[in-house]
Structure formats: C-alpha cells, structure tokens
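Predict the 3D structure for this chain.
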Amino acid sequence: MSEPIDFPEPSMIAVNGIELEVFEAGQENAGKPIVLCHGWPELAFSWRHQMGALAAAGYHVIAPNQRGYGNSSRPAEVSDYDIVHLCDDHVGLLDHFGYEDAAFVGHDWGANVVWSAAPRVHRGDRR
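Done. Predicted structure below.
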C-alpha cells in the first residue's frame, strides 16, 4: 500500500498579464528556488513525488500550471501560447518571488520551455 501524497494548496499569482495556479513546497528564501515545469498533457500535480523531497533538501519548490492548464488563465489567442509568452511567465514567477535566478526542471513539453527560458532567466533578460 502506498503512502498518501501531501500535495500543497495552490496560490494564484499574477504574472505576464495572466494568472498562474502555483503550488509551492519548502520555505521561500530558505534556499535556492527550483521551478518544475510540467509536460503535456500533464499538470503541476505530476511533480507530486518530487516536491516534498526537494523541499526537504532545502529548496523552495515552485510548480506552476502553465497557461491554459488547470486553473491558470486561458488566453483566447493562439499566439498567446508561443514560447516567448511561456518563458516570460516563468521569468515573471521569479520576479514575483524576488529571485534573480533558479534551477529549472522540465518534463516533456515543459523541457522545451525550460531550455528556452534559461538564457532569459540567467541573463536577466526581462521585459
């Protein structure tokens, strides 16, 4: 029998002109932040097994439902889902929390977002 999963309650965070449903574990500013980006057609819940372990290791774990997923905003225009908007959403999360950078982990489609966001985050290239 498996143990029950203690998944955090979400917060709605305004970034980049939308609201993202965000799940957090660990303490803000207690250690380096780590942002977990889900794949398609998953949700942030797909990181449920990793969040507790990462928080216990000292990370502030941030797992958003990307735009169009879960209770995050669903813009009407297809162009609002391009890679620039998706990357800017993650940069906006760092700005919201006051972080200069973070470790990013992506799965499936989320990996493409992470690869594309990394140069923007680490250069401080914010709109």
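The chain has a mean pLDDT of 90.
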